[in-house]
């Protein structure tokens, strides 16, 4: 347990939960709660990252579609300008 106590990856709250589980002899239940804690934390992080990436992807897709539209329409406008002369 000493290695985890000095680790930055294990939060102090989790360390306290593990110590309480060891004292009470119910380490299995505590580990289950810790697992749920990290599962919720991971889901929240994924939700936040996805929320930040979605607007960026919309902007990128808009730029790509706009470039394709300009690439298709610009030659048509040039041809119509040349033909009207």
Give structural attributes.
single chain, 85 residues, mainly alpha, 3 helices
List the helices and strands and how they pair.
Blueprint: H1 2-5, H2 12-24, H3 27-83
Helix pairs in contact: 2-3
Low-confidence stretches: none
Q: Could you say how many structural domains there are in total? A: 1
Q: State Rg.
A: 28 Å
Q: H/E series, N to C? A: HHH
Strand content: under 5%
How many helices?
3
How many individual β-strands?
0
Give an overview in words:
α2 packs antiparallel against α3. This protein has one domain. The mean pLDDT is about 90. The longest helix has about 55 residues. It is rod-shaped and about 90 Å long. By secondary structure, the protein is mainly alpha-helical. About 85% of the residues lie in helices and about 0% in strands. The protein contains 3 helices and no strands.
């Amino acid at each position: 347990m000493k290695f985890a106590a000095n680790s930055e990856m294990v939060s102090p709250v989790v360390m306290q939960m593990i110590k309480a589980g060891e004292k009470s002899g119910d380490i299995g239940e505590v580990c289950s709660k810790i697992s749920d804690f990290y599962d919720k934390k991971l889901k929240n992080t994924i939700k936040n990252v996805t929320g930040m990436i979605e607007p960026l992807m919309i902007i990128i897709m808009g730029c790509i579609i706009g470039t394709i539209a300009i690439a298709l329409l610009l030659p048509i406008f040039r041809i119509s300008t040349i033909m009207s002369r």
